[in-house]
Structures are given as C-alpha cells and as structure tokens.
Design brief:
The protein is α+β, with helices and mostly antiparallel strands and about 130 residues long. It contains 2 helices and 9 strands, in the order E-H-E-E-E-E-H-E-E-E-E.
Length: about 130
C-alpha cells in the first residue's frame, strides 16, 4: 500500500474558528472542497512550511457533528487496497457501506476496534 500523505483532520461544526487558529499559527489555506456527500460538508487543506523547509498539513472539515473530532487523514494511491487492509485489521466503515465518491476522490472513514479513526482517501488522477 502506498501512502501519499498522512496528517490530522479536524471535524467540527465551527471550521472558521479552527481555521483562524491554524492561520494564527502560520498555516495557509491550500485548497477547499465543498459539497461533500452531496451536502454542505466542506473541507479545507492547510499547510505550514517551517524555517527549515519542513512542511506540515492539517485539514479542517465543516460537518454537522455533536462535538469536535480529530482523525488521521491518510491519502493512498489505491483506495480499495487500503480499505481491505484496514478491514482485515478489524476496522469498520464509519458510514456503514457508504463510500464517498466525487469526480476527484474516493474516501471514507474507518474505525478501529479500539475506537480511533483513519479517514482514507484516494485522489483520482487524470490520465492523458
């Protein structure tokens, strides 16, 4: 399995406050995706570049949840491979059988037997 990125994802009802906090820490908005799951869910990718050139990411998603949650976002080259590997380790899909598919990605959140979560995503690459 090839992992292309691995970073925290904050899921919150108040994304603007979380985004403002990370901007105050020096993170910059990189891109935003709206209309996830055909609803008003929005995700913002943020990036911080340290003085030594090291790059860090955090994602903030605006989602109607009862309380904030933090999960691990793991981008992979092959969604199905990652999904089945986590399933074999006892993870369950937090959305039941639903996989979120958009023109640019395929994703879901998986819950471990002990309760921590990993949000896996494959970015659909355009082939020329």
């Amino acid at each position: 399995m090839t992992i292309t990125s691995f970073n925290p994802l904050i899921i919150t009802q108040d994304a603007q406050s979380a985004i403002a906090l990370f901007e105050a820490l020096g993170f910059e908005r990189r891109h935003m995706k709206t209309g996830i799951n055909d609803s008003d869910i929005t995700s913002v990718r943020m990036r911080y570049t340290g003085e030594d050139g090291k790059i860090f990411h955090v994602d903030v998603a605006q989602v109607p949840v009862p309380q904030d949650m933090t999960t691990i976002r793991m981008n992979v080259r092959d969604f199905d491979e990652a999904y089945h590997m986590l399933e074999a380790k006892g993870f369950k899909n937090a959305q039941g059988d639903k996989i979120t598919e958009t023109p640019t990605s395929k994703a879901t959140t998986m819950v471990s037997p002990s309760g921590f979560t990993i949000s896996i995503a494959e970015h659909i690459r355009k082939h020329d």
